[in-house]
Amino acid sequence: MTRADTPTGPPPWRLLLGYVRPHRWALLAGAVLSLVTGATGLLLPLVARELIDDLSHDRAIASALLLMTALVVANATLGAIGSYVLRRTAESVVLGARRALSSYLLRLRVAAVDRSEPGDLMARITSDTTLLREVTTDSLVGLGTGGLTLVATVVMMGLVDPVLLGVTMAVVFGAGTVLGVIVPRINRASRQAQDAVGAMGASLERVLGALRTVKASGAEHREERTLHAAAEESWRQSVRAAKWSAAAGNTAGLAMQIAFITVLAVGGARVATGAIDIGTLVAFLLYVFYLMSPIQSVVGAITQYQTGAAALSRIQEALRLPAEPRSPAAALPADDAEPAALAFADVRFRYAEDLPYVHHGVTFAVPPRGMTAFVGPSGAGKTTVFSLIERFYDPESGTITLDGRDLADWDLPRLRSAIGYVEQDAPVLSGSLRDNLLLGNAETDEDTITRVVKTTRLDGLVARLPDGLDTLVGHRGTKLSGGERQRVAIARALLRRPRLLLLDEATSQLDAVNEAALRDTVADVARTTTVLVVAHRLSTVTMADRIVVMDAGRVRAVGTHRELVTADPLYAELAATQFLAAAD
Ligand code: ADP
Ligand code: MG
Questions:
Q1: Which of 269, 287, 319 delimits the end of a domain?
Q2: Where are the transmembrane segments (predicted)?
Q3: Please, are residues 19 and 96 in contact by the beta-carbon 8 Å criterion?
Q4: Is the distance from CB of 503 to CB of 532 less than 8 angstroms?
Q5: Once rounded to an integer, what is the mean pLDDT over residues 490-512?
Q6: Which atom of ligand 1 is nearest to the CA of 374?
């Protein structure tokens, strides 16, 4: 996501108010407590005076001191509670935004993720949301308390002398015009600073995701420069924002001094003509002084808000990425659920409008039960067939049906709960081996796990691992080999008891013995389940009930190995070269 496609929409503060709304009473309480603490702080000297005056009468010193101490302690306690409540509320706002964003990102359409930088999305959840904290306490509370004081002071000024109020307002509006120029610059710089943090996240993800390749290619220095450049860009823009914020704060201060001088001059003239008396002028000047602090806090709130608004607009963009509808998780099929029937009819598909078509009218039908193999040169569109079945993407035209029903009419979780999918290069997630196996079906009983571990020939691995099934694997634990990863992925898919099993080159990295064993397992599963495999090994392909030959986004031929060897030259060639080369 770049600045260029920044969409227009509701202003960021609407989003902020949405996150603040559940905590509005706590926020109000915090603000009131802070106000009260400030006000009572001002009253303390007066109370002290009263008490000291009283001492000349016959009151005991001890009780006077006690009362004062009690007041001071009460004031400090209220102050502490007030700032705790405010800070806590602000953290809750951050929490709300993070929850909303993480839920949303899990629902993102795969196509939306394809076109985003995961590192940048991550920065939006972690770093941009953090900025909402200051916005909530400083901007909202500052604007609220400062604004209230401001209005009250202005009303008082109007009562004292409307003419002098007019003079003051003229100066304030002058300053407002200057601020109108400065404030958008703070916003722009903050936005660019946050974008740079996002870019840094993206670069980090790129480097850490491929650290071995980066090191092996000797590309550390080049990657280091990219990371530093992003960090420096964020610094540059933050410094720019700081410069404009400083300018804004001092513009407000300067305006108030000018207002003071102007009121003095105009007020003096009015006193001379007898329009007002000197007492009125003095009172008004005092109000101009009082105006200083709320104006500073309102301007501070506005400048502080610019950073938050930049973060909010980045959050808003993430929340506008296309996502799947929210629906409750569906139950997995029962043990004896019927195998699924699947059909593609004239499916045309491309990954994006600016990319070429990947499927140019793909048509085939798969009856329930049995094994269907998809073969064809790499890039033919085989993996894409599986992605469309999972509805990671939707076809542009044509229909895909499962059990005779258009995929578009299926409830998405129900559709996916019917499918077991082993993607090409399926990853192992960090966590225990057990977590990995039960990812798609947390309710599996121990006997079933043991059985599937055996049929996928993971029992040897489990026996070898220090903590068996509970050994940590993936990121923070034991790394698995390619073949082990593939067997884990197959076991994971089988434990879902799928009605439709999709295996995309799922045994490509197995050794001959394991491959033969898994082939038997899959053949066994195909007796009760519809199985689709993308395979390169002749041994797997020949045992399929039907073979779909794909080339350049089209289905060339469908048949058995015997039929196709004579009927389809491409298949014959594949069988003669690639399959045989891959077969052991
Ligand atoms: P196969 O599995 O038969 O090797 P794929 O279905 O993976 O082929 O890919 C078919 C074509 O679609 C290829 O040209 C590939 O570059 C392209 N492609 C695959 N995935 C994406 C994607 N996420 N975004 C854009 N293009 C893609
Ligand atoms: Mg593929």
A1: 319
A2: 25-48, 60-86, 140-157, 163-183, 244-265, 271-292
A3: yes
A4: yes
A5: 94
A6: 3
**Residue 186 pLDDT class (50, 70, 90 cuts):** very high
d(CA 358, ligand 1 centre) in Å: 7
How many beta carbons lie within 10 A of that of residue 134, not counting itself? 15
Which among 382, 384, 554 is the best mutation to test ligand 1's pocket, defined by most ligand atoms within 8 Å of the CB?
384
Which residue's alpha carbon is nearest to atom 5 within ligand 1? Answer: 381
Predicted confidence at residue 29, as pLDDT, reads 94
Q: How far is the CA of 406 from the centre of ligand 2 (A)?
A: 24
For residue 199, give the CATH number of its domain: 1.20.1560.10
> Are residues 261 and 183 both part of a single domain?
yes
Is the pLDDT confidence value at 43 over 80?
no
200 lies in some domain: yes
Are residues 410 and 283 part of one domain?
A: no
Q: Are residues 38 and 155 in the same domain?
A: yes
Mean pLDDT rounded to a whole number for the chain = 90
Residues 257, 186: Cα–Cα separation, whole Å: 24
Nearest CA to ligand 1 atom 25: 351
Atom of ligand 1 nearest to the CA of 550: 3
**Overall average pLDDT of the 375-382 stretch:** 94
pTM of the model: 0.86
| Tokens describing residue 219 | 């590309």
Rounded to the nearest whole angstrom, what is the distance from the C-alpha of residue 111 to the centroid of ligand 1? 13
User: Atom 22 of ligand 1 has which residue's CA nearest to it?
Assistant: 351
* CA–centroid distance, residue 350 to ligand 1 (Å): 9
State how far the Cα of 160 lies from the Cα of 288, in Å rounded to an integer: 12
Which atom in ligand 1 lies closest to the alpha carbon of residue 378? Answer: 4
Residues within a 6 A CB radius of ligand 1: 114, 351, 355, 358, 376, 378-384
- Residue 1: per-residue pLDDT: 45
The reply to whether 330 falls in a domain is no
Query: Is residue 479 assigned to a domain?
Result: yes
Same domain as 301, residue 360: no
Domain that holds residue 7: 3-319
How much distance in Å is there from the Cα of 363 to the middle of ligand 1? 18
Summarised one tens digit per residue, pLDDT across range 286-337 is: 999 888 888 988 999 999 999 999 999 999 999 999 999 988 888 888 888 8
Task: Quote the ligand 2 centre to 114 CA distance (angstroms).
Answer: 16
Residue 35 has pLDDT above 60, yes or no: yes
Rank 2-11, 65-74, 185-194 by mean pLDDT and report only the highest.
185-194
| 188 found inside a domain | yes
C-alpha to C-alpha distance for 30 and 38, rounded to whole angstroms: 12
CATH code for the domain in which residue 528 is found: 3.40.50.300
**Domain total in the chain:** 2
521 contacts 455 by C-beta, under 8 angstroms: yes
Residue-level pLDDT at 181 = 95
Secondary structure (3-state) at 181: helix
Instruction: Say yes or no: 312 and 359 in one domain.
Output: no
- What confidence category does residue 5 fall into, taking pLDDT thresholds of 50, 70 and 90? very low
More confident residue, 508 or 10: 508
Give the ligand whose atoms come closest to the C-alpha of residue 357. Answer: 1
Q: Which residues pair with 555 in a beta bridge?
A: 550
Q: Do 94 and 220 fall into the same domain?
A: yes
Of the residues 284, 319, 354, which one is the last residue of a structural domain?
Answer: 319
| Residue 2 pLDDT > 80 | no
CA 323 to chain CA mean position, Å: 12
Write out the two tokens for 535: 């395979």
Cβ atoms 487, 510 nearer than 8 A: yes
